[in-house]
Amino acid sequence: MSVFPNLPTPPAAEKKPVSDTRHGITRTDDYAWMRAENWQAMFKDPSLLDKDLRRHLEAENAYMDAAMADTKALQEKLFAEMKGRIKEDDSSVPVKDGPFAYGTAFVTGGEQPRYFRIPRDGDHKDEAIRKLLLDGDKEAKGKDYFRLAGLDHTTDHAFGLWGYDDKGSEYFTLRVRDLSTGEDLADVIENTGGGGAWAPDGKSFFYTLQDDNHRPSKVFHHMIGEPQSSDRLVYEEKDHGFFMGVGGSLLDDFIYIDIHDHETSEYRILSTKDLTAEPLLVAEREEGVEYSLAEGGDVFYILTNDGGAKDFKIMEAPVGAPFKENWKEVVPHTPGLLILSHMAFARHLVWLQRRDGLPEIMIRDRKTGEEHAIAFAEEAYSLGLSGAAEYDTDVIRFSYSSMTTPSQLFDYNMATRERTLLKTQEVPSGHNPDDYVTRRVFAPAHDGESVPVTLLYRKDTPLDGSAPCLLYGYGAYGITIPAGFNTNCLSLADRGFVYAIAHIRGGKDKGFSWYEDGKMEKKVNTFKDFIAAADHLVKERFTSYDRIIAEGGSAGGMLMGAVANMAPEKFAGIIAAVPFVDVLNTMLDDSLPLTPPEWPEWGNPIESEEEYRWIAAYSPYDNVGEKTYPPILALSGLTDPRVTYWEPTKWVAKLREKAPAAGPYLLKTNMAAGHGGKSGRFQRLEEIAFEYAFAVKVAGKM
Fold it and tell me: How many helices (H) and strands (E) does the chain have?
């Protein structure tokens, strides 16, 4: 019996065939028209959306509402549960920097953070000593969408640079705030990447400008009090395959210009002693070679995979001559031991690495060379290294959590090795870790590899194949999905679900080679790994195929589309959030925001017939057929610059055309948001509650 009885007739999208021939291969796309010709302008002003497209998207939303109408009470209950696990008036432990300590806080009922500071050694729980610097709720008032980009203060603590996006299109506006009065200056910098780097004197800052293709292609220097039109162009990156970021060193000695795609990087640095100079090239870009810098006084520490160091090593070079010929090894490359990031302080070098799929923090005394690790004993856990805002310090900050253990925040003295617990995440509605089990199991892959799968479930969950399962996956860009504490998924565990994360190839969960084996011509490994995880969970009686709901977003949404085509019978339902499903068309269109920088990840089907054929073989949209697809929920954002709204819209239309008897296929388009969905903390919970309600409904657990 269907869990979606008595559905209305779904929207039928008009077909307007458009043919395209590449490498002698002709494809016809019946739904290419869904990409509005004015999409770039529409991202900045959604009211410009073509009326026929708007009508179609609204019809899809109405159909989705009808299909999910019987879950309204469940959505409200799930939302209340998830909200009840959040401390509404929560605040961070402020980070010390000079005479002050800076932090963020929320108020009861508030959606956006408030930025504050206190005297350096003041009690952050004493609200009387807090000086409010920026009230996110006040700035967001009256806006359908609002996302803050943070608040960065000057060295003398007089001004703050803050940014916001009020469309969801990720074009950020920057403002300068007088931190003593709380008033913004007249400076307004439009169409930026969202952040910047102050010059040490606090009279100017550097920022990246987003072009019409949503690429941060230029770095500008802005003088406070001058119009944006007079800002000086510092550097322009003309290769459309590269992005840029700008930042500053802890010692305020350098401005960093970080130029990169997904596998190649290049740094240009500007000494703050002469802000008008040309940026200095550290090491010319080489395809496949990555490096990043951390200043350590008289040296730069350089994290790199140069010279075949697949899992990275750390080098050093003189600050005055950081060029490649002067690089000397400090931390050698160890195959299988992936170095993820590094930081330098006056007396210590710190790096985060992953060993056997689990993270650990390494500390080296710069004078003696003695090393030690910060690690934990749980079977699966997550570490976050936030370091410090000051260079001359022995104290850094890190966080720890597991699927059952709420997040803990520590200060760590690198000299004495003393840990100080600063804060444990509160769960106001209550949480007993002993009620739950966290496990890591390994699923045999098709080629002999083993795929780690992290599990969370209640101790009283029957492991006889009867439990429903939400199986989450991503598998791209080398991103590792941490096995950290997530209060939201407790709502599923409490309903008898096994919550599972498949650490599939395409991430760096098992080292850099794990990433390499899930990209380009090996991309299909990602999809096969996910199916192998489902097979293993069924074999071990954690669940059954007719109880597995698969979930993934963005590149993980591509994963959802691919496994739906490859093994639709192995899933009871699929949740694809902002899914990158029209891969071939997108990679063939170099005018789209992310296409050229994505070629190293997926291949360039414009230049290479071989790479065209790789992508064509798995691209979800291109491989939709007459199959027994399970119910599918696709979620989209109208102003999403990363996965454009037309990808899931076309996919759902084609699914409905090719396999009308299967599904159903539901499309929810957020008409006032982009890639990340709604921006407020509780608004986001509403979206998660909606997704989980779909999972519960499909699993027959309502």
Answer: 13, 37
Q: Which of 554, 619, 636, 679 is catalytic?
A: 554
DSSP codes of every residue in 487-512:
STTHHHHTTTPEEEEE--BTB-BTBH
Q: Active-site residue among 260, 401, 675, 679?
A: 675
Count other Cβ atoms within 10 Å, centred on residue 415. Answer: 11
Q: For residues 314 and 303, give the distance between their C-alpha atoms in angstroms, rounded to a whole number.
A: 5
Give the model's confidence band at 678: pLDDT under 50 very low, under 70 low, under 90 confident, else very high.
low
Say how far apart CA 406 and CA 432 lie, in whole Å. Answer: 10
Q: pTM of the entire structure? A: 0.89
- Copy the structure tokens of residue 203: 């009279």
Active site residue 92: no
640 is catalytic: yes
> How would you classify the pairing of strands 665-670 and 632-637?
parallel
Region for residue 308 given its phi and psi (left: phi exceeds 0; alpha: psi -120 to 50; beta: otherwise): left
- What's the pLDDT tens digit per position in 61-86? 999 999 999 999 999 999 999 999 99
pLDDT tens-place string over residues 413-455: 999 999 999 999 999 999 999 999 999 999 999 999 999 999 9
Buried b (16+ CB within 10 A) or exposed e, 669-697: bbbbbbbbbbbbbbebbbbbbbbbbbbbb
Residues 489-532: tens digit of each pLDDT: 999 999 999 999 999 999 999 989 999 999 999 999 999 999 99
Query: Which has the closest alpha carbon to 290: 220, 254, 362, 338?
Result: 338
Check the CA dihedral 400-405-406-408 and report its sign.
negative
> Which amino acid, 545?
Y
93/107 Cα distance (integer angstroms): 15
CA dist 695 and 700 (Å) reads 9
User: Which two structure tokens, joined as six digits, stand for 457?
Assistant: 């479930």
Distance (Å, rounded) from C-alpha 613 to C-alpha 619?
10
Q: How far apart are CA 58 and CA 69, in angstroms?
A: 16
217 is catalytic: no
Instruction: Note the Cα 269 to chain centre separation in Å.
Output: 27
- Residues 410-423 have pLDDT tens digits of 999 999 999 999 99
Cis upstream peptide for 406 (omega within 30°): no
